């Protein structure tokens, strides 16, 4: 298998076969992100992707159970191309339980509903979507290239096609200034979509990003651990997306909460309160690139 640049995948895909279908990210303008800065975006030839899949089959045999197709927005590929590699993947690995990839709302919305249905039929089970926020002002400041209504539209289109939706919420993305509206409007968007998964991430401000410069100049103030937890509490309090599974599945987060909305809400609230009662110095601090 051939890889170019640094390969990123969600923690939930730790045991998945990784086959690079695209190089980099077609947007690559988010103020907080320094991923994919060393490569120019392009789609790999289908023939090369299939060669890597065949090499994986020769290496691991037919018993691979999950496949993830990096890089940052593989859903941008032409539908016919995606269908071809999805069908070939299922042909090689008959014991597959899921095939997943990254895809943001902007690029999901470029596909017609019938195209998404074709992708589901060909074997795409789940899409990891970096929503980050459901607040339009936060999204604008992050340069996400989309807005709340487009995120809702994309999520509903995916669900209608039968593709699982895994949305990511970035705690702290609004800074101290927009923390509350970031949480409240994100809850509104998630309630409208009812994603299969809501995955919590905690913002880290990294060097060599526009957000780092904004912070340095005093234009952005990163919430403290307790402020980030209070924001997370607001989000959890206002989620009414029945059946969505919330997961804090990343080492950067300040507390480990997980459960299904709404039945596990109280347990999650108690975990957050326990973390709020802990000295901030004892909480895990996300590496912010300033060490």
Explain what the structure shows.
With 291 residues, the protein is of the alpha/beta class. It has one domain: Aldolase class I (TIM Barrel, Alpha-Beta Barrel), CATH 3.20.20.70. It is built from ten helices and ten strands. It has helices at 46-60, 79-92, 105-108, 113-122, 136-142, 148-161, 179-193, 210-216, 225-238, 265-276, and strands spanning 17-18, 22-23, 42-43, 66-69, 98-102, 126-132, 164-171, 197-202, 245-247, 258-260. Helix 2 packs parallel to helix 4 (113-122). The radius of gyration is 19 Å and the shape is globular. The two termini are 35 Å apart.
- The CATH homologous superfamily name equals Aldolase class I
Distance, first to last CA: 35 Å
Q: List low-pLDDT spans.
A: 286-291
Principal-axes shape call: globular
Task: Give the strand tally.
Answer: 10
In CATH, the topology is named TIM Barrel
Biggest beta sheet attributes: 8 strands, mixed
- What would CATH call the architecture? Alpha-Beta Barrel
Instruction: Give the H and E element order.
Output: EEEHEHEHHEHHEHEHHEEH
What is the overall pLDDT average?
A: 94
What percent of residues are in strands?
A: 5-15%
By secondary-structure content and strand pairing, the structural class works out as alpha/beta
The CATH C-level class name: Alpha Beta
Radius of gyration, in angstroms, nearest whole number? 19 Å
Number of domains: 1
Total number of helices: 10
Strand order of the largest sheet: 1-4-5-6-7-8-9-10
Percent helix range: 25-40%
How do the strands and helices of this protein lay out in sequence?
Layout: E1 17-18, E2 22-23, E3 42-43, H1 46-60, E4 66-69, H2 79-92, E5 98-102, H3 105-108, H4 113-122, E6 126-132, H5 136-142, H6 148-161, E7 164-171, H7 179-193, E8 197-202, H8 210-216, H9 225-238, E9 245-247, E10 258-260, H10 265-276
Parallel strand pairs: 1-4, 4-5, 5-6, 6-7, 7-8, 8-9
Antiparallel strand pairs: 2-3, 9-10
